[in-house]
Amino acid sequence: MKKWFLLLSLAVLVLTVFSAGAFPLPTASAQVLPGSYNLKLMTFNVRKMTADDGTPNSWSNRKNIAVHVINNFAPDVMGLQEADKAQIDYFIANCSATYQSIGTSREGSTTTGEFSNIMYRSDKFKLLDWGEFWLSETPYVPGSKSSYDADYPRMSTWVKLQAKDNANAVFYYFNTHLSLVLEAAQQGANVILSKTGEYVKASDAPVFIGGDMNRTEVSPVYATFQNAGFNDTWRTAGKSFANDGTYNAFAGDLDRAHIDWIFAKNITSVNAIEINRYNENGRYPSDHYPVTLNVTIPLTTDTASRPIGQTIWLKASANGNYVSTRANTTDNPLWASATAANTWEKYEVVDAGNGFVSLIAKANNLYVSARITTTDVPLQAKSSSIGAWEKFIWIGNGDGTVSFRSIANNKYVSARSNKADNPLEARIDSVAGWERFTWGN
């Protein structure tokens, strides 16, 4: 695909359909500390394993070349696109560094389908948090498709990582593979930016968005990231936009299309960025060149993580009361009404998969549910298993508080201020005082 051809995409976009000003902006700040930390990042569309079976470009002929290109750069974090589970497993088994993979396939499977996963060096970094969402009208429905593209579901996987040798080196990486359909790609960019605003609450936390965007630097999709404060690291480094193609069609082309990018905000410097054209006797590891980035990030105090496996108490910030699974009423509703943390105020935080959490009330060992059968029903500790209504997004607000968002109805949990005993309800569209909680052990 030539750059001149991609220019035609500009003619089919109606910019007013998409609001670039609709992204929730981070408001809290992590303190920036003296010093910095160096990272090596890679985005790599590895081409599906079975797509070229029976040809010279089959996976069996290029898998070791792919391992060599990874080993030669040794990225700390690598966002993959079009990866099959067997390809991911091959990298984990054969790469020199110790990698762990995060994320499911675009169909929501852990074993089948195309992955837009993130691999990180588990010997160097601790996983503080992670999640995934789909680039559709229903981001938390696995496998959901954009209304603009009925062919394939598209998604983003993200991680929050902390360096093991420096607890204040913390950053976020969002990985994606945008649609070939312009309107769907634009929608996908908007969803990603919206979710960075939801998950990254510290306004000065280093954040990267990388992947196969299927769009060049002249695309409004590219401009959407730039206008939202995510700078193209290729442009930041002053690199040329001539002979800069990242799609090569296994032919070694230099300027077919630059569509693989890493955008960044709140970084200290771009030290080096390259389109890695490594090949062995004319055989390439993929039909895309990997893009490698050496970057320096500042140190911050944004080090919070989800307390998976821990038993905690929760306290409503607005009234200072503990959240209690009240024992003397039917169905054990949750209220922000207790003045001390005893058994009925303790909850175990459980990993519910896909970056979500569930809460088990320690008093009755039942899951907290946001299931609403009538208007304004409180959360209740009454479920024996995890379904959609028992899954929440644990959101750090950057100010020492957390909020919870129900996956089932996409609403925030609130300790509503205008009812007796302040029942918790999943019914609010944004975070204010009554949607903030502190926690401890």
Automatic annotation (TrEMBL):
Pfam families: Exo_endo_phos. PANTHER family: CARBON CATABOLITE REPRESSOR PROTEIN 4, ENDONUCLEASE_EXONUCLEASE_PHOSPHATASE DOMAIN-CONTAINING PROTEIN. GO terms for molecular function: 3'-5'-RNA exonuclease activity. Keywords: Signal. Residues 42-288 form the Endonuclease/exonuclease/phosphatase domain. InterPro entries: CCR4/nocturin_mRNA_transcr, Endo/exonuclease/phosphatase. This is Endonuclease/exonuclease/phosphatase domain-containing protein. It comes from Paenibacillus solanacearum.
